[in-house]
Amino acid sequence: MRPNKADPHRAGLAGAVALLAALSGAPVAHAETVTRLTFSQAGTVLEVTAPAAGIMRVRLGRGKLPEDASWAVPAATRSVHLPLEVNRSGDIVHLSAPNISARINRRTLRAEILDASGKPLLTDLAGSHEAGFRLRGKLAGADHIFGLGDKTGTFDRKGGAYTMWNSDTYKFTQATDPLYKTIPFFMAVGDRGRAYGVFLDNTWRSTFDFGKTERDVLAISCEGGPIDYYVMSGPAPKDVLQQYAHLTGKPPLMPQWSLGFQQSKWSYKTDAEVRAIAQRLRSERLPADVVYMDIDYQDRARPFTVNRNTFPDVRKLASDLRGQGLRLVLITDPHIANAPGQDYAAYDSGAAQDMFLKLPNGQHYSGDVWPGAAVFPDFSRAPVRRWWGDLYTGFLADGVAGFWNDMNEPSIFNVASKTMPLDVVHRIDSDDFTARRTTHAEMHNVYGQLNSRATYEGLTRLQPDVRPFVLTRATYAGGQRYAATWTGDNASSWQHLKMGIHQLLNLGMSGFSMAGNDVGGYAGEPPSPELLTRWIQVGAFTPLFRAHSETNRPDQEPWIGDAAHVDIRRRAISERYRLMPYLYAAAEENSRTGIPMMRPVFLNFPQVLANGDRLGGSEDQFMLGGDLLVAPSPTMESPGAYKVELPGKGWYNYWTGQRLAGKDEMVTPDSATLPVYVRPGAIIPKQPLVQSTAITPEGRLELHIYPGPNCQGEIYADDGASLAYQRGAYLRQRIRCEETPNGMKVIFEQRQGEWKPWWTGLAIHVHGWAGARSELAPDMSGGVLSISVKE
């Protein structure tokens, strides 16, 4: 991420061999317990710290340690150093921290990272230095590898090699690499569910090879920057993700409306067209919360402008949409038209305050994008980020609800690299970095993250009690603190629908839970009615539910096609809105713990990893929260029957409420129904159907109980828009159920928080029990309900 000052290109692993060799004759430490362990020998410095239980950090540099600064890990997190117990026996130096340790052989120069029980996790870690650096270690043969963001290829990264270099990849394929994001974190999971994670905090171009070049060998190489990495010991996959969230941050709780259906296109070109889209959504009874406006609302595609001929009054448009329960989200790309002397406020103010990136000769760098020649803010500077955030003042005053940062890899037209030259100069002036100049080679992969950060911080400053909504295409580790994301310019194909599920699962395991893909496909031939229908059905169970497509191709809004397909799509979107209490509780859990909303099955049921090469069949499935399992066909374009393998027995069919007789079910694909199952022991909250989250449901909150082991669920609610929940204005209530000889007992634990719920009571539905339904008065804040009807 940062070049070492002794070597402006890189702080390499050059001294690793000399350093570790020197350990054989140097004392390990002067005390048995230290807060950091530092060696300095032959011009190389190595430091080991433990910033939290189960996490070990290793930094290495020439002459001195790399700068202790990061775009991903906040200073408050890095400054914590738990005690390290140091022991040595012969050639072995053993460093122990809570739930993790390291063992270094001073003569063979090999290292192992061990879990709390002393079992090796990352073994034989060693390195070499030529250009940049290279780390090399062993992978266990049974390990599965996940993470690295929305990379394509196989769901399990084992056996693949991946490059970290944010790239604009229109109509990417299964084989395309690199893609839009750099998240240099992975989680390795063994066949018994024991897991560990590795995060390399380095923004330079890097490559992760998981046994592709050499079987069962992990090779990490980087073109420059520091050796600064963290190992997380788990032991369970959820533990690793929470440890990673501790390092890089948890996402904020976004406004509830962002969980609603979002309709977008490049572009709705006039005020009248946007209004027609809104009116059609409402007349078709298609629940929705958001309409996007792409670049054609702008004057000559210039960010922070409006074409007043086609959009004469954005404030009135936004207000009228709000009256229909719809929010307006605008695109604001980072390229500012290079337009001196043309009364373009964004350029004029930026140029006057020296906010733009420059070439080595001191001139502004200019590259072609949508507005033609454009200049680019230097988001590595705190004053630039503040300036950028202030540009949103007018749009917020007009009632615009959220903003979409696209093209921020950054993407440049008409050049082979598709981005700016690597010698473009950035002037870092931010956080705990030392103020200095560096090149785009270091800052490229973090540019999108800093762009979304500038937007998020600006919205937070301008509307301090309103939850911001920012959507970004490119990002770096830690970017989940600022923005939601999506998988970029996909294509309308069955392959992209299936591939998109894997991308979202790995994004969730990389910190980015609030993510989606362009429902229906963005590019290529338009989707068939069957593909669009299935994509909407799947999208209804993903965190970010946005339909989007490119210009100059047939429409693909949900009402396109015959009445039967439109009705199926309506039912799918409507079911999402009925599930909003469950979905919102999962979003709140994600913001509190870092556990993703959309999850691979093994995250809740690690035992599936022991069931064969295809993860026990679970690679074709996913879970929404802890209780709903979605099982589309492994060959979605095929009408052939397939077997759904479920983790354990007693699961329920979500649509019928019937309990399955066994643990497997043969399914014949049906365009009207997406197979969804409910965990035995789940308690699912649902609400009456509304057409927007802006509309308060009327009546009772439904609690759907599916008897089984560990029977529990949770209700969470707040105002969905402000930060009042952080001040106690929320409602949280845990509910449990127990089967008794006389029937069932439902236990309502004491409510937490001060939020007054919208519901007038609770309706209890017990599935698999004849006639089991009960109504509760609205004052049921805690207590026991007995249901006497037996199964």
What does the model show?
This protein is α+β, with helices and mostly antiparallel strands. It folds into four domains: about 15-150 and about 185-250, Immunoglobulin-like; about 260-485, Glycosidases (TIM Barrel, Alpha-Beta Barrel), CATH 3.20.20.80; about 485-675, Glycosidases (TIM Barrel); about 700-785, Sandwich (Immunoglobulin-like), CATH 2.60.40. It contains 14 helices and 47 strands. Strands 1-5-6-7-8-9-10-17-16-12 form a ten-stranded antiparallel beta sheet. An eight-stranded parallel beta sheet has the order 31-30-28-25-21-20-19-32. A seven-stranded antiparallel beta sheet has the order 2-3-4-18-15-14-11, with helices on both faces. α7 packs across α9 (about 440-460) and α11 (about 530-540) packs parallel to α12 (about 565-580).
List the helices and strands and how they pair.
Elements (H helix, E strand, L loop, with lengths): L15 H7 L10 E2 L2 E5 L2 E9 L2 E8 L12 H4 L5 E6 L2 E6 L2 E6 L4 E6 L4 E9 L4 E6 L5 E4 L13 E4 L16 E2 L2 E5 L5 E6 L5 E5 L6 E6 L4 E6 L4 H12 L12 E3 L7 H13 L6 E4 L20 H10 L3 E5 L4 E2 L7 H8 L14 E3 L2 E4 L6 H9 L2 H5 L4 E4 L19 E4 L7 E4 H23 L7 E3 L2 E2 L7 E3 L7 H15 L6 E2 L12 H11 L5 E3 L15 H16 L1 H14 L4 E2 L1 H4 L17 E3 L3 E3 L11 E4 L6 E2 L10 E4 L8 E3 L4 E4 L14 E5 L6 E7 L11 E11 L2 E6 L13 E5 L6 E4 L6 E5 L4
Helix pairs in contact: 7-9, 11-12
